[in-house]
Amino acid sequence: SFRGVLDAKEFTLPNPGGGQPLLEDAACTLTWGRRYGLIGRNGIGKSTMLRAFAARRVGDVPANVTVHYVSQEVNLTPSQALKTPVECVVDADVERTLLLAELKDMEAKIETESLDAKGLKQHEQVLQILHEIDADTASRRAVTLLENLGFSKELQARPLSQLSGGWRVRTMLAAAIFSKPDLLLLDEPTNHLSILAVMWLARELATSETWKERMVVVVSHDRSFMDEVCTDCLHISGAAKRLTQCRGNVSESSDRVERPTEERSDDGGSHVD
């Protein structure tokens, strides 16, 4: 994984609806091992900023840094619509998918004895890498991940085209976690989750060794979820068009920046389809 710093200096965040920009002369620094809560009033531009991060329009994001963005809505591609949640999650491991395709091509050449010595050595290296990333257990790990997010066996077997929007979002959330990107961007990830699934997600992001070596940026109305997950805050101030960065979760940061108006919803911020 990427073990460095992503610096965004003096950037402007345009308003997608036109008019004055949402942020001017803004700056922030994302450091590996830190989890950032993006906070501010409703409609202030938090989702817009997440999308700008995802599109690599904020800061100088090296090409080798992997980015995975989970939005509040999912638009399925034709191929995704036919896949089950398990297949969709497994496919999120792009390295595994590419290596298996390479392996298939090399083994076809081995059968026809058309693979030279260099190719045979490469074949051994691919097998070694697949072993190191536990490629054989991918489906089993995907099933466990989906179960933690509330999927029954029956739902796991349905194609995504037959799932509601909430279950599709959960599938994409599972895929993002499975892919272990260097930068994980989550927009309201708890909206469609049960209380148990929210608790699991918070524990996964806050305590897993995986996310202690990566960067996470989260937008959520669920204050307790944000407090458990986040180590730092990025606060968007609409009036000043300013971005303020500080250490600590939402509650710890509220004394240092303008208190956000979006509080947890009346039912605790967790919802079930």
Concise description?
The chain has 273 residues and is of the alpha/beta class.
Explain this structure:
By secondary structure, the chain is α/β, with parallel strands linked by helices. The protein has eleven helices and eight strands. The protein has helices at residues 46-54, 78-81, 85-91, 94-111, 117-132, 138-148, 153-157, 165-179, 195-207, 223-229, 250-253; strands spanning 5-13, 23-31, 35-39, 67-70, 183-187, 215-219, 232-237, 242-247. A hairpin with a 4-residue loop joins strand 7 and strand 8 (242-247). The protein is globular. Residues 258-273 have low confidence and may be disordered.
Question: What key attributes describe this structure?
Answer:
globular; disordered C terminus; 6-stranded mixed sheet; two-stranded antiparallel sheet; 273 residues; 11 helices; 8 strands; alpha/beta
